[in-house]
Amino acid sequence: MRKHILIAGSGFAGTWAAISAARAVALAGKEAEVAITVVSPSANLVIRPRLYEAVIEDMNPDIKPLLDAVGVQHVAGTVTEISSDARRVTVARADGQAVQMHYDKFVLAAGSQLFTPPIPGLHEHSFNVDQLENARKLEAHIRSLAARTPTGARNTVVIAGSGLTGIETAADMGGRLKAVLGDDAEIRVILVEQASTIAPHLSAAARAVVEGALAECGVEFKVGAGVVSIDAQGIELSSGERVESDTIVWTAGARAHALAAQIPGEHDRLGRLVADACLRARGTGDIFVTGDVARAATDDLGHFALMSCQHAMSLGRVAGHNAAAELVGLPLHSYSQPKYVTCLDLGPWGALYTEGWGQQVSLVREDAKSLKREITTKWIYPPAPDREAAFAVANPDFVIVP
């Protein structure tokens, strides 16, 4: 009977885990002995880092031809239950059937979900860009504003959270509103952050660039103010201030997919499973974790992978390789990704590119914008459905950074 590698998820980590696993099996010449299956709702890779944009075509490229080319099966469905002792998962298939699938090695690459605390009105009256369907809802809503009576609330967008997604959304939003409401419309874009400064995760030098760029884009800041409640007419802040707005966009962080909680082992505050150097979930024998569900050390200096495609792609390559390597007799590969960069789109101002965990500012404005376009329109997209070409960039050592 063929051994079975089962991968849950077809995002950046899941897609690259599948290609890397197929590459390892092919290197060992054991394609007839090992089957690889990816389970996800559809055979698409959603380009989540770009969902804040107004134009969202080609944000979910079809990876079925690629999976076929490398010999990986895709099952349309969602893993709902993981039985690690029995090495079995339950899959709710797209056709409505629930099936059991056994595995010899399991790779959890289910990604992350938007953090949604119990704030009154958050679910009913806010938008987000966490998933493609959410981004489409926001774009439809923005387009619908043109048919509404001109008011301050109609012309005001409040973005809650000044992480990378919040910053990029804010920088882009003024142009989106002008395109719908007209250049003469009095637009307000407000970025709300509960910390004492926007972008508290950035270095002082990078933050100064972001603050100046957003101000030039006309974005207002409200810091030291958390969100208390949201309703159909606006938002209440912990400062006691109320902002009238028809459009509230929630971008306040992410948490590991709920499936991670079903796997035994240590979890961090984001719900991620603590992984060993080979990305095995600690305390398990046959389960590897990757992407946004893995807390993995990038180096020996105390840095850990972030919930980003930059890390997910490399994590996927390593997890997929190791899952296959144990079955086909190849050496395991330790995950290491010491180089860290940030490339942040800042709308019409340009972009910001930093290097290192200290976030040293390296490029700004159009120079950084050109690099950002290269990354988001080429580098992070899946490779062509060509077996050898895909395998050539699926080596667990392969990292795409400037």
TrEMBL record:
Transmembrane segments: none annotated. The keyword Oxidoreductase applies. Its cofactor is FAD. The keyword Repeat does not apply. Belongs to the NADH dehydrogenase family. It comes from the Bacteria. This is NAD(P)/FAD-dependent oxidoreductase. Residues 4-314 form the FAD/NAD(P)-binding domain. Gene3D superfamilies: 3.50.50.100. It comes from Aromatoleum petrolei. Keywords: FAD, Flavoprotein, Oxidoreductase.
